[in-house]
Amino acid sequence: MTVGYAVFNSVLNIKGTSGISSNWDVRITNVVSKNIVGGATNAKEPTFEALTASMEVNLEEPKDSIEYDITVTNNGTIDAKLDKINLTDSNNPAIKFTTSGLTEGTKLKVGESAVLTLKVEYLDGVSVDPNNMSSTLTVTLEYSQSNINNEGIAVPEGPTASEQLTENIVTTGDGLYEDTTEAGRYIYRGSNPDNYITFNNERWRIISVESDGTLKIKRHATVKQVWDSNGRRAATASASYCTSKTFGCNVWGSSTTMLNNNLENVTTMPIQINGEVYDLPKSESDINSYLNRTYYGTLDDEVKSQIDNHLWNVGLLGTTSGQTLETDVAQEKAYKWRGNIGLVNVSDYVRANSNMEKCGTKALLQNNVETCKKTNYMYSGVDSWTMSPMTGGSVWIMNSAGYLSGNGAAYSDVIQPVLYLIPDISLDGEGTAINPYTIVS
Question: Most buried in the list 21, 248, 305, 324, measured by CB within 10 Å?
């Protein structure tokens, strides 16, 4: 008992640090001491910087204690979650460390602060070796993005973008309609629906909510790029899938995996998938290589992480004047390509019109062009490429007059990039030109 009492009369020097590791701007913003009991004193005032707080305290007698409030603030743009509070000390039996307030599993939303209270106390009735009179404490807080699932994939905590948008289905006027040609799909129609979205700090428009939860969006601003270059393929080249080799070809991807000579009955052909973009001649179109290499390469990693590597419909589309929209969709879907960036399909342009009675097919668009271009937000007044090749060697284009027509692959150079946003996002905003949707997670 005499030895034990002598030890407790000695001064114990306690040092503590708290480090937070995070990929976001989650940091300690303040450390204060409080509730000092007995002879406990700060040997030094607590200090902190970005992710570390340090405390040093003197405890002189049993039952001495002191508490520290460590304030953590989320100054980033992504909600965070505290996964683990790790306490590491030198196992001095005379010292007890406890935490309260902030607990594991607690979410720290953007702009909010939380407090972890650390109590350091000198236990009563504990005998220790007189040579062991100090202890060091390290508190490590492990944070992660609050919306990461068990597979490591980010998912929104609230409703997904597709769930948010499909809450407001319309049957007349401008807005989001149920797609009658493809189950589970929704499309924006009208002269100016509320489908504006900010992506890559630019104005885009939502074309559709797909059945897999992705959003198909189209860039508002145009880019200069021909579909395929004049003279890129020699006239004698083995490119039977292309009927106008010296004026550019109408093949989006590899001839061996997508389009070929046997084009009479494309709706019955097995679906083909080509997953790569090649630089080899007579393989991929110039526009495909440009969008998926040059243009895609200009995007930063955060923007790329929001793009879904998706299947695109690139089947050859017939010119039959009486061809229905359903036939167009079936022919487009006969061949597929997987990639990051593409263009609109012919059927996207047709389905964007709110006046389907007069504008619901390629032929109707042309016959009623003055009416149809007023009820279709995709009409831009310039010739702009689709990604749908046409029988005969041309490519379908949304022309300046307001209807769909064919053009040689080297004859026009205006495009509007299109992509699919991943399904695991949420949206803020109203979708208007003044208050467009923004991606919040």
Answer: 248
Higher pLDDT, 168 or 47: 168
The angle at the Cα of 429, spanning 77 to 172, to the nearest 5 degrees, equals 155
- The residues near 180 (Cβ < 8 Å, ≥ 6 apart) are none
Query: Measured between alpha carbons, how far is 181 from 373 in angstroms, rounded to an integer?
Result: 22
The answer to whether the CB of 98 falls within 8 A of the CB of 120 is: no
Non-local CB neighbours of 289 within 8 Å, separated by 6+ positions:
277, 278, 279
Q: Which long-range contacts (CB under 8 A, 24 or more apart) does 310-314 make?
A: 310/214, 310/338, 310/339, 310/340, 310/419, 310/420, 311/273, 311/336, 311/337, 311/338, 312/336, 312/337, 312/338, 312/339, 312/342, 312/387, 313/345, 314/252, 314/253, 314/258, 314/259, 314/387, 314/388, 314/389
Rounded-to-integer distance, Cα 409 and Cα 284, Å: 13
Q: Residue 281 corresponds to which tokens in the numbers above?
A: 């001649």
Q: Which residues of 397-425 are buried (b: 16+ CB within 10 A; e: fewer)?
A: bbbeebbbbbbbbbbbebbbbbbbbbbbb
Instruction: Specify which residues 97 forms β-bridges with.
Output: 120
Task: Calculate ∠ Cα 116-118-124, nearest 5°.
Answer: 155
In single-letter form, the type of residue at position 97 comes to F
Binning the chain into helix, strand and coil, the percentages to the nearest 5 are 15, 35, 50
Question: Which amino acid, one-letter code, is at 263?
Answer: L
pLDDT tens string 187-230: 999 999 999 999 999 999 999 999 989 999 999 999 998 888 77
Note whether 28 and 51 are within 8 A (CB): yes
CA-to-CA separations, 4 to 35, 110, 129, 239, in angstroms, rounded? 26, 50, 8, 94
Residue 298: Cβ-neighbour burial (10 angstroms; 0-12, 13-18, 19+): exposed
Over residues 79-117, the pLDDT tens digits come to 788 887 777 776 677 788 888 888 877 888 778 888 888
Element (H, E) at 3: helix 2-8
State yes or no: pLDDT of 416 exceeds 60.
yes
